[in-house]
Amino acid sequence: MENWFYNFTLFALGETKKQPPFIGARPLLVLVAAKTFDEEAQTLLGKMLTAIQLEMDKDIFLLQIRNDEAIHFHSYPCLGVLSFGIPLNQLGIHYRMQSYQLLDYDGRQFLKVDALSKIAKDRNLKTALWNELKKLGSRLKKESP
User: Is pTM, for the whole model, over 0.85?
Assistant: First the structure.
């Protein structure tokens, strides 16, 4: 392709077939605050995920986030995002999202909840999380390749 702006040749790329999404990826990205993710929180998380038939070492990509760290969750190939106590603006999301309510966000299932340390102490929060985790697990199973 001839051009006058660049001093090198540009090549037009042909259209490629759309790849099935997330091949070889782990189905769920779990985001936790690094400062509060202790052994007790890890045990609680493991139990909850096992209950929806997800394995920590096989199905989960666990990311511990520092307070001063901003990430863009789109960089991680996954079918769902489970965020424990991470502010949305730290994830590159700049609008309100209801906590404990599963949402289809940008082609991914997204669930924002309180920090694991807070959930561990509150039966109502555990129940709310469990209700949404069941939905999340079901949707991830449907969408997995």
Answer: no
Strand 108-113 relative to strand 103-105, pairing = antiparallel
Q: How far apart, in Å, are the Cα atoms of 132 and each of 70, 96, 103, 104, 121?
A: 26, 18, 10, 13, 18
- Quote the distance between the C-alpha of residue 50 and its chain's center: 17
Of residues 91, 133, 137, the one with CA closest to residue 116: 133
Looking up tokens 């920590």, which residue turns up?
A: 56
Q: Give the pLDDT confidence of 79-113 residue by residue, as tens digits.
A: 899 999 998 888 888 778 899 999 988 788 999 99
Query: What's the rounded Cα separation, in Å, for the pair 42 and 48?
Result: 10
- Going by the DSSP 8-state scheme, the letter that residue 23 receives in this structure is T
Residue 98: CB atoms within 10 A of its CB come to: 8
Q: Which parts of 1-123 are beta strand (E)?
A: 28-33, 60-65, 80-84, 103-105, 108-113
Alpha helices in 2-115 (DSSP H): 39-51, 56-59
